[in-house]
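Teaching assistant's notes for section 4

Start the section by putting this record on the projector. Ask students to predict, before seeing the second block, whether Outer membrane protein assembly factor BamE will look compact or extended. Collect guesses on the board.
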Amino acid sequence: MPLAAHWLARCGAALLLAAGVAGCAGTANRMVSAITPYKVEVVQGNFISSEQVAALKPGMGRQQVREILGTPLMTSVFHSDRWEYVFTLKRPGVEVQSRRLTVFFKDNVLERTEGDEMPSEAEFVASLSSKVANPKVPQLEATEAQLDRIPARPAPAAPLDAQPPAQPPAMHYPPLEAPRR
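Reveal the predicted structure now:
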């Protein structure tokens, strides 16, 4: 086959392949849009409950505040008397939850707090429930008709413990360490 004919045959095959792919583009787009990637839940920061905020009292030291709220997410070199507690929860198909609490200190004791209204622990846990209202629960019990379709089991073999135990092979292993003198 001459070189020009060989080249034309390859170009023609490439054009036919491209036309076939272009005709399938609508189907391919539908298939790609039907497949959705897995999206992870992103939790960032410290969850602070209303119970924790209620436990804070003016005059507490920094260590006492840290024991109640945990380590702050942000501390500023320029604002050493202020701690920022930020919490963000991103879940697919659910509105982003974001809350902020700022703790102010004066002379290393708690002066005041400012921030969002914090939910109680019970309210927060309830907000984490699945977005599926009535999930389909599989049937866990077989009906008589379903059991009749299962073939009968063969008779069980004799249990292994009914056979006389085999004698272990007589083996002698050398010591792991050489005796010390």
